## 1
Amino acid sequence: MKVLVINSGSSSIKYQLLEPDSAEVVASGMVSRIGESLPADAVTIEHQSDGETFEHRGEIADHAAGLRAVFELFTASGHDLAAEGLGAVGHRVVHGGEVFYEPTLITDDVVRAISDLSSLAPLHNPANVVGIESARALLPGVPQVAVFDTAFFHRLPAAAKTYAIDAKVAAAHGVRKYGFHGTSHEYVSGKVADFLGRERTDLNQIVLHLGNGASMSAVRGGRAVDTTMGLTPLEGLVMGTRSGDLDPGIIFHLIRTADMDVNDVDALLNRQSGIKGLSGVNDFRELGRLIENGDTAAKLAFEVYIHRLRRYIGAYLVELGRVDAITFTAGVGENDAKVRAAALAGLERYGIRVDEARNTAKDRAARRISADDSEIEVLVVPTNEELAIARASARLVA
Ligand code: ADP
C-alpha cells in the first residue's frame, strides 16, 4: 500500500508518495511560491521520482492549481496517482485545538472543524484546509486522514498547559499551551526507545527538535509532560526567524512607542526575529561561516540561542527528575555538532558527557554521541514526519 503525504503551508506544498511499511519513498517534491507573480520560466515545482528530477515552470495561482500540476508530474514520471492504488492521503494539519488529538478520517464536518480552528493558527490551518479540499477533489475515492501537530501534547498536565491569566478569559478564547512538532517528538522518542532496545514506557526523555522552527519536549514514559511551544509556535526556543520567549510587555511597548500595530509586531516576532533578527541570516550554516569570520552579531546570536536551550534543558531535567536520554533532531539538531556540544557543555555533574569524536563524526543514521560513562544517553535521531504521517494514516484506514 502507498500513501501520499501532503504538508500544505501558506505559500508552499511539500509532498511524498511512500510505502509506510518499508519506508520507501517512491516520489517527493515541493511546490513553492504559490500565489506570487513570476516569469514564465521560474521553477515552481521540483519533483523527484525514481532518481530523476522533473520540473514545473511558471506561476502557480493557488494551492488547487499547485496540486493539479503535481498530479500531472506524477503522471509524466510514470506514477499515475489515480491508477496507483493509493491506500490513503495523509495531511499534516498544524492546529487541532481541543477538538482533535489523534489521526482523524476526513469528512465534511472535520474539514469545517479544522477551518473553525483558524483563529488559533491563521497562517497554517487555512492552507491545510485548501490542501485537503484540493486533494479530495482530485482523488475522490481515496480516504483522507488528518494528522495533527498538536496531538502528542493533548494531554499535557494542567500545570504545564495553563497560562496564569484570568481563567475565564483563557477558557473563552481557547488560551492554553497546545505545543507543535508533536508528530516529530512522538516519532523521535519512539525511535529512541527502539535504538536503546527499551520500552518507551520505561524511558524519561528530553527531545530537541531544532529546525528552522524549534521546540523541546519532556516525555515521561512515552507521554509528553511539557513542551516549549505554546498557544502558537512562537513561544519557547530562539528559532530561525522567531523570537521564542520574551517579556509580553515588549509587545505593548512597541505598539505604544514604536509606531507599530499588532500586525507589524506579529511580523517582527515571527519573521524578523530569532537568529535572523540578531545576525541577518537564519541558516545555521551561514551563521557558522559568519562566526568563523569574526562577526560579533552572529556570535551573540549563537550565544543567545544556546542560552535559551540550556535554560530549558535545566528546566526539563528538574521536571522529569530522572532523565534517560536527551535527543537532537531536525536540520540543526541532526547536523550542527557545535550547537549540540554547546547545549550540553559542562553538565557532567548532571550525568551528561558528550563524546567529542562521536559528536563530530559525519553520520546520517540514529547514533549515540554521549561517552560510555555518561549516565544520560545523548543521541542524534533523524526525524521523519512524512513517514510518521503515512504510518498513522495507513493504520487508521486499515
Ligand atoms: P524546517 O523547520 O523548515 O522543517 P529543517 O528541520 O529542515 O527545517 O531545518 C532547516 C535548518 O537546518 C536550516 O535552516 C539550517 O539552519 C539547518 N541546517 C541544515 N543543514 C545543516 C548543516 N549541515 N549544518 C548546520 N545546520 C544545518
## 2
Amino acid sequence: MPRPPMIVRTLPALRRALDGLRARKATVALVPTMGALHDGHVALVRLAKRRASNVIVSIFVNPAQFAPTEDFGSYPRTWKSDVARLAAEGVDLVWNPDVKTMYPAGFATKIQTEGPATAGLEDRFRPHFFGGVTTVVGKLFAQTRPDLAFFGEKDFQQLKVVTRMARDLDLGVKVTGTTTVRERDGLAMSSRNVYLSPQERAAAPVLYRAMKETAKRLRAGDNFEAAMAGGAVLITEAGFTLDYFEARHAETLAPIASLKDGPVRLLVAARIGKTRLIDNIGV
Ligand code: PAF
C-alpha cells in the first residue's frame, strides 16, 4: 500500500516539505487541479510519476477564474475521494491552500497574458478566465517551484496560455500537456459532466462525434467551410447552443481556413441546459 500523501495547507509547511525534497535532490512535478478528480486527472498524475521522483497535486477551487454568474459555489467538491485516489496513485503531497492563503487581504497582483490568451476562443466568452488561471498557476508555480507541470489537453487554450506564461516569465518549469481521457462513448472527462441530466448526458458525445466527422471530411479534401458548417449543425441538432466551433492552428491558435495552413486543431464550446462543455481534437 502506498503511503497516504502529506496534506499541506499553509505556506510555511509547504516550504518545509519542499526544502526536504530539494535537499534530497528530488525532481518535483506539479499537477494543478481544482479537485473533483476523474480519470483524466489520474492520467496526469501517472505521467507525472513516470517523469519525476516526487509528485505534488494542488487542489484549489480558484475563485478568480469564475465570473460572478458562474458555478464557483456549486463546483463539485469531493475532497475525501480525491485524497483516496491520490493515495492510491502514490502522490507525495497534496497542496490545499484556502482562499485567504492564496489571496490574502490586500492581494493586488494579476498576471495578464496576451498571445494564446487573446485568441478569441474561451477569452471571448469568459473574459475573466485566463487572468484568473494565469495568476493562480503563476502562484502555484512560485509556491511549489516544480521542475515539471502537467495540464490536460482538454483545456487546449489553457495549456497554450500556461506554457507561454512559463516561458515568458522564465519560471524554469517544463509544462507538458496530456491527451484527453474520454468516456467509452467519446465524451471528454470533465469535473463539470456531473451537472448533465441523463438526457443531456446522452446528447453530450455529439461534440466528439461532430469533431471526428468534420476532421474526416477535412482530411478527405471536402470544402473547408462546408465541413465546418456540417459539424456545427450536428452539434446544434443534438440540442446544444454553440459558443464556437472553430479550426485553429494547433500551435498559434490563429484562425485557419485550409489544412495546408498548418497543424489544425478543431475546438468546440457549447452549452446544454446549465452546463457548458469544451473539447478539441487534432485533425
Ligand atoms: O484546469 C483547471 O483545473 C484549472 O484551470 C487550474 C489549471 C487548476 C487552475 O485553477
